[in-house]
Amino acid sequence: xxxxxxxxxxxxxxxxxxxxxxxxxxxxxxxxxxxxxxxxxxxxxxxxxxxxxxxxxxxxxxxxxxxxxxxxxxxxxxxxxxxxxxxxxxxxxxxxxxxxxxxxxxxxxxxxxxxxxxxxxxxxxxxxxxxxxxxxxxxxxxxxxxxxxxxxxxxxxxxxxxxxxxxxxxxxxxxxxxxxxxxxxxxxxxxxxxxxxxxxxxxxxxxxxxxxxxxxxxxxxxxxxxxxxxxxxxxxxxxxxxxxxxxxxxxxxx
Length: 254
Ligand code: BV8
Known about the structure:
By secondary structure, this protein is an alpha/beta fold. The protein has helices at residues 3-17, 51-54, 57-62, 64-79, 85-99, 114-117, 149-153, 179-191, 210-216, 232-235, 244-252, and strands at residues 20-25, 103-108, 123-125, 128-135, 141-142, 166-170, 194-198, 220-225, 238-241. It contains 11 helices and 9 strands. The strands form 2 sheets. Strands 3-2-1-7-8-9 form a 6-stranded parallel beta sheet, sandwiched between helices. Ligand BV8 binds at residues 26-29, 31-32, 37-39, 52, 55, 109-111, 127, 170-176, 199-201, 203-206, 225-227, 229, 243-245.
């Protein structure tokens, strides 16, 4: 038996024995769907911008059309992609947990909606969703479908209720995460027996604090990533090296 097979077996046994499973995903799980990871998201037109500059309120205020167009570009790219085997394996795991009356919570940093498209139901979207919109001043939810053709052509459009600029309903750097979603994620991390950490560099807070929180509360933390990360040394009990589209099906579907 190879090292990898032995490690997979340990991870499978931990998942089988667990009563409460939490999963934290990052941009890496969507890489095999053809979506560049977050820090590679600067391609072409935006190559000379840093994500941390575009994904901020200040960046939007400084150049609303540029930020609006960057999200439009990313949204259209996500629209044309499909969930991959890694997303589907996590949806299978959630169904298996339901059948075995185990607790399961999927926490994602991703805004691409691919977990829901893969069939996952309990998804805590820490950083929002690129397919939802709200207005800048009052957080009014905005549906572009309900805007007039002319209003929809504006980049960005204006809120029909307060006329402030429409923005993507995502959490920008320097913005608070949705309170209930974050508290639910903390609770899942503090109470799980096993945490699967998939495709995140472990850089962005407070999401990156979740694996350490799980470990400090007694969970067995399994990381799936082709590269070791900021978390591997400090918060991970078992590091499964490789792409999630290959590892997760082997871990869950077998
Ligand atoms: C907050 C939505 C309280 C938008 C995102 C100074 C001033 C102000 C704040 C801070 C500061 N210092 C630190 C902070 C906190 C800041 C932060 O963490 N900054 C970082 C850069 C240090 N956090 C915040 O601001 C958060 N809010 O703290 O509020 C506050 C308020 C005011 C002042 C202080 C505190 C808000 C953070 C949310 C930002 N929004 N996304 C958008 O997407 O446009 S975060 C963004 O990064 C994405 O959501 C992304 O998911 C996330 C994390 O990145 P990863 O998912 O890990 O992606 P990454 O590319 O980094 O890594 C990919 C990984 O996949 C790699 O490890 C790679 O090896 C792996 N991989 C590759 N291929 C595969 C794979 N894995 C598996 N399979 C493969 N095939």
